[in-house]
């Protein structure tokens, strides 16, 4: 990859800045065609993650992925927003967790209090 995912992210976010939504959609379409044309399609996941991280950082917000075995509910999401300050909470349902919760903050900090991880720890000993 000649162009790094950070460079792609910075360029993309800069190009969208101040543009109306319809223009942003057109730019996004052209941007992803460019990535494909440059042969960087296999790095699309990393590029999109970098765009997302840069976007939230520029807004001064944290992205929180809240993963539970069943829908968590608004009260838990509001409590997390209150604890972390300015945060955007994305909820994911994953029945494989059995019970408990996993929290990923800015794709970096993982708090794993799921039954699955606790059982794995228990049987590793």
Structure write-up:
There is one protein chain. Helices cover 53% and strands 21% of the residues. The chain is of the alpha+beta class and 125 residues long. It folds into two domains: 5-59, no CATH class; 62-124, no CATH class. A four-stranded mixed beta sheet has the order 2-1-3-4, sandwiched between helices. A hairpin with a 3-residue loop joins strand 3 (100-105) and strand 4 (109-114). Helix 1 packs across helix 3 (44-59). The longest helix has 17 residues, at 21-37. It is globular and about 50 Å long. The mean pLDDT is 83.
Q: Which properties best describe this structure?
A:
about 120 residues; alpha+beta; 5 helices
Summarize the structure.
This protein has helices at 5-16, 21-37, 44-59, 74-84, 115-124; strands at 62-68, 87-93, 100-105, 109-114.
Q: Which percent band covers the strand fraction?
A: 15-25%
> What summary fits the major beta sheet?
4 strands, mixed
Structure annotation, total helices: 5
Spatial strand arrangement across the major sheet: 2-1-3-4
The backbone outline, from C-alpha atoms, is: globular
Mean pLDDT: 83
Helix fraction by DSSP (H/I, runs of at least 4): 40-55%
Kindly, what is the distance between the CA atoms of the first and last residues, rounded to a whole number of angstroms? Answer: 42 Å
Helix/strand-derived category reads: alpha+beta
């Amino acid at each position: 990859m000649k162009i790094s995912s950070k460079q792609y992210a910075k360029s993309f976010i800069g190009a969208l800045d101040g543009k109306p939504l319809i223009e942003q959609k057109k730019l996004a379409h052209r941007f992803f065609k460019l990535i494909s044309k440059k042969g960087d399609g296999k790095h699309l996941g990393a590029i999109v993650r970098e765009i997302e991280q840069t976007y939230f950082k520029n807004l001064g917000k944290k992205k929180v992925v809240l993963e539970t075995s069943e829908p968590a509910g608004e009260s838990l999401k509001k409590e997390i927003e209150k604890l972390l300050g300015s945060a955007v909470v994305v909820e994911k349902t994953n029945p494989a967790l059995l019970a408990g919760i996993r929290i990923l903050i800015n794709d970096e900090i993982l708090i794993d209090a799921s039954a699955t991880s606790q059982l794995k720890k228990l049987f590793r000993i």
